[in-house]
Design a protein that fits this description.
single chain; alpha/beta; Rossmann fold; six-stranded mixed sheet; two-stranded antiparallel ribbon; about 45% helix; globular; vWFA_dom_sf; LolB; Uncharacterised_CoxE; VWA domain-containing protein
């Protein structure tokens, strides 16, 4: 077991060499950390860590082998993520020997989407298998939240079926207030109330997911594809998935195969949100039963005024417009707040959501 002193020695690197002697395994961990983080000039300038002489001789394959042998899974994923995203070590996702060793995780999926244009057919086949495994994990994790929200929508009428998930808290309190015992400060429940769940899908709804495929939105692109796959086939809901940069690509035909869909995405390039919003508006059949979700950082390269006009027009015709600066499990956005404020002023709901929260929003609307 690594002692606290050894942990600090590993964190601070070679400048803290006098803090604690490292055993063979801790020394190997130190070499692996130095190989990666020793290339950061900012750390070296502050004297926090410098690369060891022997560590630089490691190949990426050797380093990955050491990392998988020496660290727990969550640390492996963080190291691989930093290798690709902080230090641009593209061999992690473009070299077949390296790619066959990496742990499938969302960070590497983002890296594959950014670098797949560099891959030869052999590497691309390996990358596709990695994409498939990560997508399988994401679908398994997200489908529960997405489907739970859409299992059935609440109706206001009472029900005789006593199910805990349909317990009407407010109705029960109101109906039993006369049984309140002031001395014991307790409300005696004579009769609990429940609401019914129904699927009133005689009039179908539309959900148009409009996804910015600029490089900074990789995480949202992935989760939009997985969310669309989870929502596909929900009774009474017709889902569209559209990706855009300066061009607009309708990916709805591939929604049931998110792996194929993601392999077609081309991250990077400019951004014309206004053009994409016009395309989405053209897809809407029944304005008052439609939701248009624009997933973007809202750094518009097109006509901002045209975008605001299109969003205002959608809102005025009764369409629910979501402007989501992030759609992923963290829902931590980085976006143009000025343009987002103008879109909010035009009547759009502006913010960030997890896929489960988006499903809940959809369920709330179609249940009315």
């Amino acid at each position: 077991m690594t002692s606290d002193l050894e942990r600090w020695r590993l964190i601070l690197g070679e400048p803290a060499g006098g803090m604690a002697a490292l055993g063979p395994e801790a020394a190997a961990r130190d070499a692996a950390l130095a190989w990666l983080y020793g290339r950061d000039p900012g750390l070296a300038q502050r004297g926090v860590r410098t690369g060891g002489g022997g560590a630089s001789q490691l190949s990426t394959v050797d380093w990955l082998d050491d990392v998988h042998r020496l660290f727990p899974k969550e640390t492996i994923e963080r190291l691989e993520q930093d290798a690709v995203e902080r230090y641009d070590i593209h061999e992690v996702v473009t070299d077949p020997d390296v790619l066959s060793r990496v742990e499938p995780n969302p960070a590497l999926l983002r890296a594959v989407l950014r670098t797949k244009h560099l891959m030869n057919p052999e590497v691309l086949a390996l990358a596709r298998r990695l994409v498939a495994e990560v997508v399988r994990q994401l679908v398994a994790a997200l489908a529960v939240d997405v489907r739970r929200s859409l299992t059935g929508t609440r109706a206001r009428k009472p029900s005789t079926f006593r199910l805990a998930r349909d317990f009407d808290f407010r109705g029960t309190i109101g109906a039993n207030l006369r049984h309140y015992d002031p001395e014991r400060k307790r409300l005696l429940i004579e009769r609990a109330r429940f609401t019914s769940r129904t699927r009133k899908h005689t009039e179908p709804w539309q959900l148009v997911l409009l996804v910015d495929q600029s490089g900074s939105m990789a995480g949202s692109v992935i989760h939009s594809a997985v969310t669309a796959a989870c929502l596909w086939g929900v009774p009474g809901l017709r889902t569209h998935l559209v990706a855009f940069d300066t061009e607009v690509v309708d990916l709805t035909a591939d929604v049931t195969d998110p792996v194929e869909l993601l392999m077609k995405v081309q991250l990077g390039g400019g951004t014309d949100i206004a053009r994409a919003a016009r395309y989405a508006a053209g897809l809407v059949d029944s304005p008052r039963r439609a939701i248009v979700a624009i997933v973007s950082d809202f750094y518009e390269g097109g006509d901002e005024h045209a975008l605001v006009r299109t969003v205002r027009g959608l809102v005025e015709q009764g369409t629910h417009v979501l402007c989501l600066a992030a759609l992923d499990v963290d829902a931590v956005p980085d976006y143009d707040r000025a343009l987002a404020g103008r879109l909010a002023g035009a009547g759009a709901h502006v913010g960030a959501m997890t896929p489960g929260e988006l499903a809940g929003f959809v369920a709330e609307r179609i249940g009315r």
